[in-house]
């Protein structure tokens, strides 16, 4: 309820998340709320840590301070990522949002490492923790606040498909666990002199470091070139196939230039006997309409195929039966017959499952094996095969 009130109050046109200015407004709102909430929690927990002399509470306080700093860096990342394209960066600056996430991740790990040292020192040289009812109540309130912040970041992150804010949601949820452990250790200290505070501090610190490691994985993945979103890929495939004369597609490649900023290229199979001007007009229209609809830059390459030749159709049917015996082959495309007389070449591409390493030995073996299978049925044919990888 509060999340929706904040969105309606501070964001114009909240439903038009495809607009860059609306998306940035969501990002600034999420970051601002994160800065304010985590700063307040830092002050409260630092106060509790000082009066109770608890290292685990103090560690949890500085964890919240790092979260506030993370939100600030996320805000700066949104600002820089929204810069328009220029001569040096023709596809914009969207990937800066991922880089800001990396900075946040390393800061989180650094905070966790520092408090592991402090917690270990507390175990070696224990200091009695002083239980205070007010302090305990404040910790419980901070846990409830973090639950709300996690849900708020999740709501915003899903709304604008922001990995940075979704990661902040998971981080806040993790803080609920760590703060609960801290509150438990504070309560137990009322009845024991065992230095549980130091052990809980190490547990909290390890969890902080693990959160940083998880954030690094999430932010590095798109920078390294992760597989594209299946929903977007299916929309592109179905969209291209919906246009007249396009009978098949292959070689879809999607490049990520930041959240919501994608460039895609795809090959479309079209009849070879259709007017070049006519099919070019259809391809141009498909590129323009799908680019606007899906908010991407789409480039379509035309692959002319022969659909009316009996020999071509029969040979393809026979080849498809052979291909079914190879579980590592997911599909074939660009099939054509070249040559005259008794000896002809079957030219085509095969797509290999991504789980299969494309070693030179594997490629040579599968090409020889397919050629052998074809010649067993049609000795006059020789296969010229190109091996492709499925980028989806």
TrEMBL record:
Keyword Signal part of the UniProt annotation: no
UniProt keyword Zinc-finger, yes or no: no
Entry's transmembrane regions: 26-48, 96-116, 128-149, 198-216
Membrane topology: Multi-pass membrane protein
Keywords: Membrane, Transmembrane, Transmembrane helix, Transport
Highest taxon listed in the record's lineage: Bacteria
Compartments where found: Membrane
Residue stretches making up the Cation efflux protein transmembrane domain: 32-224
Stored Pfam families: Cation_efflux, ZT_dimer
PANTHER family found in the cross-reference section: MITOCHONDRIAL METAL TRANSPORTER 1-RELATED (PTHR43840:SF15)
Family, similarity comment: Belongs to the cation diffusion facilitator (CDF) transporter (TC 2.A.4) family.
Protein name: Cation diffusion facilitator family transporter
Species in which this protein is naturally found: Clostridium mobile
Lineage, opening ranks: Bacteria, Bacillati, Bacillota, Clostridia, Eubacteriales
